[in-house]
Amino acid sequence: MNFPFLDNWRKRVGGTREAALAEAVETDPDGVAELFAECELLRARAGECGLELDDTPASLSALDQLPPIWREDPEELPWVGNDAGLYLGTVLVRTVPGAAWDILAGGKPVVRLSSGREIDVVAAGLDWAMSGSPELSEMYAESAESGPEAKAR
Whole-angstrom Cα distance, residue 27 to residue 74? Predict the structure, then answer.
C-alpha cells in the first residue's frame, strides 16, 4: 500500500514522529485510517481461527468469541492488544457518523466522536487481549451510543 504521508516522516528534520503523525491525520486522514486498519497480526490470528475481519460491528462480536491463544505468548500479547484497539477504532471510524482518528500528545491514537468524547481504543484493545474484558463489542456499543446512531453496513 502507498501511504504518501510516510515519506514526509522520513524527510522530516527536527520534528518528531508523533508530530508528523498528528499532521498526517490532518492532511491525509484516509491514509492514516488505512494504515491503522491494517492490524496485520490480529487479522492473521483471526484468520487462523477461520474468522475474516470485515470492519463491521459483527466482526467485533466474533473476535470476542475467539479462544485467546495470544495470551500464551507474552511477546505477542501486547501486539495483538494494540491491533485489537486499532481494529476497534477502525470499525468505529467506518461505521459511526462523525467518528474520526485523532492523535494526542505523545503520539497516542484515539477515536474522537462527534460529541467530542475521546475513546482510547488502544488501551481498550490491550485490556481485551489481556483479560477479555471489556469485550470489543461492548466498547463499540457504548461508544456508538455516545454519538449519532451508527450507520448500517
Answer: 36
